[in-house]
Write a structure and sequence with these properties.
By secondary structure, the protein is α+β, with helices and mostly antiparallel strands. 45% of the residues lie in helices and 14% in strands. The strands form two sheets. Strands 3, 4, 5, 6 and 7 form a five-stranded antiparallel sheet that branches. A three-stranded antiparallel sheet has the order 2-1-8. Strand 1 and strand 2 form a beta hairpin.
Length: 301
């Protein structure tokens, strides 16, 4: 009796600094040549080649819109690398005759199907063992904890972000309330009802248990650094200034290995496959000589 071949799991492998899986990344950015820069009748210069195939500056310019970066040079380099990868994969698919045999799945294009078939054939899909997963779990305990939680009350002294005088007054009022609450903490609910511009004033300023990411980012960053008790300074946010009291802190409990086994397995499989994919692309670059990419990358450094 023969065993069925294990079904290959499809993971979102990415290259060339993109969130897109390889097939989509290599296909999705084909554009209308008319969208490229005008050259007044002259052909766009070519400084980049994969074997005997030129990749013009016009093609790179069209591709740059899909690779946002801090500088135009970095965007150009990312676009050039994407086009090189696409051409390397196209050539290897043609050499191995995979295009005709690759059947598109779902909404895949023929090109995407060819790339998928190539990578399934050439890049080994290694599933990490249980020992691998457990070793990673034991070496990275801080990554596998439930979220920290805090229980918070606040009084919001509202002021628009562009109201300089209003924000100064709100901060001064918050400092005054903090000074009074240091000696009379039992007045917090009363102050919230009288002064707060948040609907929580009807519950004494109570926000309940919070996890990271549940509030405005700048408020979130500050309150999770506070110790238990009344904050000694106003907490600023886009809404104004907050008088904050942390009533309880609850560090996240460690998660059992069984709870995170699948998460670890997927992560390790993805990391291994990414490394093997990069090695495979380097081997293709050695087979089909790439000229000009190093210079473009150097200009972006």
């Amino acid at each position: 009796m023969t065993q069925d071949k294990p079904r290959t799991r499809i993971l979102p492998i990415t290259v060339i600094d993109s969130p897109q899986p390889v097939p989509q990344e290599a296909h999705v950015h084909h554009g209308d040549p008319a969208d490229g820069p005008r050259t007044l009748g002259q052909p766009a210069p070519c400084l980049l080649f994969v074997a005997d195939t030129p990749i013009s500056e016009a093609e790179i310019a069209r591709e740059m819109q899909h690779h946002r970066a801090a500088t135009p040079e970095r965007s150009r380099a990312d676009a050039a690398r994407a086009l090189v990868v696409r051409e390397l994969l196209r050539r290897e698919i043609a050499r191995l005759g995979l295009a005709a045999a690759a059947e598109p799945v779902g909404r895949e294009s023929a090109e995407e199907a060819g790339i998928r078939a190539l990578l399934e054939r050439e890049v080994e899909n290694r599933v990490p063992s249980d020992d691998d997963c457990r070793r990673y779990y034991e070496q990275n305990p801080q990554r596998f904890r439930a979220p920290d939680r805090i229980r918070v009350r606040h009084i919001l002294l509202a002021a628009a972000a562009d109201d300089v005088d209003g924000r100064c007054n709100a901060r001064t009022q918050a400092e005054t309330l903090i000074a009074e609450l240091k000696t009379q903490p039992h007045l917090f609910a009363d102050f919230a009802l009288r002064h707060s511009h948040c609907p929580s004033k009807d519950q004494g300023g109570e926000l309940g248990w919070l996890q990271r990411g549940q509030t405005t980012p700048e408020f979130d960053r500050q309150v999770f650094r506070l110790r238990q008790g009344l904050a000694a300074f106003p907490v600023e946010s886009r809404w104004g200034y907050h008088v904050v009291c942390v009533d309880a802190l609850q560090p996240g409990a460690a998660r059992d290995f069984e709870q995170v086994r699948t998460q670890i397995s997927d992560y390790l499989e993805l990391q291994v496959r990414q490394r093997e994919l990069q090695q495979y692309l380097l081997s293709l670059q050695a087979r089909y000589e790439v000229r000009g990419l190093d210079r473009i990358e150097a200009e972006a450094a």
